[in-house]
Each structure stands twice: as structure tokens, then as C-alpha cells.
Amino acid sequence: MERKVVSLQGKELRTIELSDSVFGLPINEDVIYYAINNELANKRVGTASTKGRGEVHGSNRRPYAQKGTGRARQGDFKSPIYVGGGIVFGPKPRDFSYVLPKKVKRLALKTILSLRAQDGTMTVVEDFTVESGKTRDFVKKIEALASNKESQRTVVILKGDDEAVKRAGRNLPWLSFLSYNRLRAHDLFYGRKLLVLESAAKSLNDFYADK
Predict the structure, then answer these.
(1) Would you tell me how many other CB atoms lie within 10 Å of the CB of residue 68?
(2) Is pLDDT above 60 for 207?
(3) Which of 13, 11, 29, 5 is CA-nearest to residue 114?
(4) Which of 3, 8, 29, 110 has its CA 20 to 30 A from that of 118?
């Protein structure tokens, strides 16, 4: 598949060959769901905790006599039916993370890249950097390609860890950066626009192509 490489001003410069095994796959909604669900589960801290009736502080005496009152029998004030009593089946600290098979994760990322290539939200951009590392200079560079609105979230895929670019864009709430070899399914899927640097697109061809 051929895609046009555009300048920062949005003008077409040349074409680049993208691998069909990475950007031309049929859309598999199941693996996308599995990958996103796995990422969200792995981010959960799992620190929610409640106390049962054996853990709360309180007296062990009965609230009233067991017999002679005509009322139902009661154990103690730590019973779940009393305010301040224990919680029934409440959450305890746990680990929500689990391992997703590598082939499923890999297929999900390629499927989302294919989806972005097919629905027209992906743009291959010439390589650039921000020497000053300033947010103002970065916004000027990409203003023709990306909107500075939270509702138009933009994802930029870099070839490597370009610290100058990341430093310039880290204050922008509508922007996120990914390296070609450390993609996140959630960001790729929910980003409204995907800007792929030309060198990163070539690296994606090699890194995710079927061996």
C-alpha cells in the first residue's frame, strides 16, 4: 500500500510504501477489545479495601437482651445491619493485571493501525524535531495538521525517544506520544488523529511485519 508523505504545512512531498501485513489487515474488533481491556486492567491499582465485622472496632456485647424483648436476636454492634458495622462482601486489595498473549496484542496493534489507515485519520509526516523544546514552537509546527482541542485528541508516533519533541508537547492535554516499538492500543484506538513520522512508519513496517 502506498501513502503520501506530507510536510508540516500539509503539502504532499512523496509516497511511502506501507506493508499490507501491518496497515492493510481486515478489522478484528475482538482483539482490539481484548488489548484495550488488558491495558485498562493492568493500570488498576486495586487498593480498595473495606473491613468485615471481625475487623471493625466495637464492643462484642449484644445491643439488647436476647430474650424477653419480643425483638429479633442480635449478635453485637459490629453486625453489618448497624451503622459503623462491618461490610458484607466488600472489596479487598487485589491485583487486576493479567498477561495477554503476545500474538493477540501484536494483532490488535496492527489491526488498529490498519483501521486508522483505512478510515483516513492517519497521516504520514516528514521527520521533524523541536530544537528549542518549547511548547509554543511545537504547536506552530503541527498546527496545520492537528487541532489543539481536547475533543480532537492527537497521537504522534516517533521512531525513538526524541526528548526535545516530548518535552515540547508534554504540557498539551490533547496530545500524546508513542514510540513505534511501544504502542498502546487504548491511545491508538481513541485518538482522533494519528500522525506517524516517516522514519517511524518505516520502522513499523519492519517491526510488525510478519516474519
Answers:
(1) 7
(2) yes
(3) 29
(4) 8
Query: What is the distance between the alpha carbons of residues 29 and 9, in angstroms, rounded to a whole number?
Result: 34
Backbone torsion region of residue 7, taken as left when φ is above 0, otherwise alpha when ψ lies between -120 and 50, otherwise beta: beta
Average pLDDT over the chain, rounded to whole?
Answer: 90
Quick one: CA dihedral 196, 202, 203, 209, positive or negative? positive
Q: 47 exposed, middle or buried (CB, 10 Å; 0-12, 13-18, 19+)?
A: exposed
110-133: pLDDT as tens digits: 999 999 999 888 999 998 888 888
Q: Are 64 and 70 in contact (CB under 8 A)?
A: no
Spatial distance between the Cα atoms of 155 and 166, rounded to a whole number of angstroms: 12
Cell representation of residue 16? 511511502
pLDDT at 211 over 60: no
CA 3/CA 122 separation, integer angstroms: 10
Cell of 68: 424477653
